[in-house]
Sequence to fold (362 residues):
Amino acid sequence: MKALTPLPVEQIPETLARAQALARPDSWADVLVVGAGPTGMACAIEAQKAGFKAIVIDKGCLVNSIYHYPTNMVFFTTPELLEIGDIPFTTALAKPTRLEALEYYRRVAEHFHLHIRQYEWVKTITGEDRNFRVTTTNRHDAIHDYRARKIVVATGYYDLANQLEIPGEDLDKVSHYYREPHPYFDTDVVVIGGKNSAAEAALDLWRHGARITLVHRGAQMHDHVKYWVRPDIENRIRSGEITAHFNSTVQEIGADYVALRTPSGPLRLKNDFVFALTGYHPDYDFLRSVGIELSPEQMRPVCDPENLESNVPGIYVAGVIVAGSRTNEIFIENGRFHGKLIAAHLSEQLGGGNQNLPLDAT
Ligand SMILES: Cc1cc2nc3c(=O)[nH]c(=O)nc-3n(C[C@H](O)[C@H](O)[C@H](O)COP(=O)(O)OP(=O)(O)OC[C@H]3O[C@@H](n4cnc5c(N)ncnc54)[C@H](O)[C@@H]3O)c2cc1C
Fold:
């Protein structure tokens, strides 16, 4: 009979109870930050400046959300308001492009020698204040364990799109993310939504030869549409270059059509592609899984506003997730300051920096 050999820890399925891997020098930290968005980076930088060892883990690449924004996107914020770690961000024009922002955050990560583990998905956080265990899986489904005294959760909101919950939403032709216009030249495209993402996608697609129908449940484009985009979209609608149905909803998406409910009755349109740009929300299940309580209506994590420590001692929340479902309240401009608040509290709690002794791995 073949002799049984124990599986290497990395190959043990995460669903099975298993021994934890021993802590390695590169797998423990004073502070482990979940999410390498602008906020997570700012938290790691400020923790490092205060003398703590920080590790940042992201399931995608550095600033994964920004990477996935529309290819030719221009920020509504001027560059100095996107700065982290007091590193200047200068751009050729008044507003940074997505490409310039990617370049900036890469340079900042290099400048501070941040310990960033890309393409590792944080699955579980267990343990207690000053002795947390964090388990991740990488792209090859290998499991990694980390130990940390404190945790910062800065997981953003862009990974989970608000669903329409209508038949056909799962068809390949439907997307909740818009990247670029070229594939949609000379096709019939429906854009659902009335805020910036929908307005900008509709204009970009129209300018590159797609036939656009915009469907929005509100009576007009939303007030938050960028002041320079709003007249552009409204003029295109007024002139009939973009067809818009307000006070309307998409009821069903078929292979080559969409069915709408409009104030003048049901409407069936020939259709090739649908962009449902109706917003995104934080991963509430992940927050709950680590014990963080959410407010009943707006799903805001329970936390101390002074230092952002959640109801779970030693676990902090940072960035847009602090606003729960009100994702337009916190963005890079204001979320980037969360790092300083948390670092100040870490110093109080851990007694200043240079606590970089490996944790006991028992
Ligand atoms: C099209 C668009 C344009 C915008 N323009 C602006 C602007 O001009 N100015 C502005 O201030 N804001 C803007 N925003 C909003 C801003 O980008 C977000 O508010 C900001 O990215 C939030 O930062 P964050 O660090 O909290 O989250 P994110 O940037 O979303 O970062 C969260 C990170 O966590 C990672 N993650 C999530 N779950 C896990 C997990 N379990 N394990 C490991 N990693 C995980 C994600 O991969 C991601 O990299 C814009 C948003 C959009 C959609």
In short: Confidence is low (pLDDT under 50) at residues 1-7, 15-23, 355-362. The radius of gyration is 23 Å.
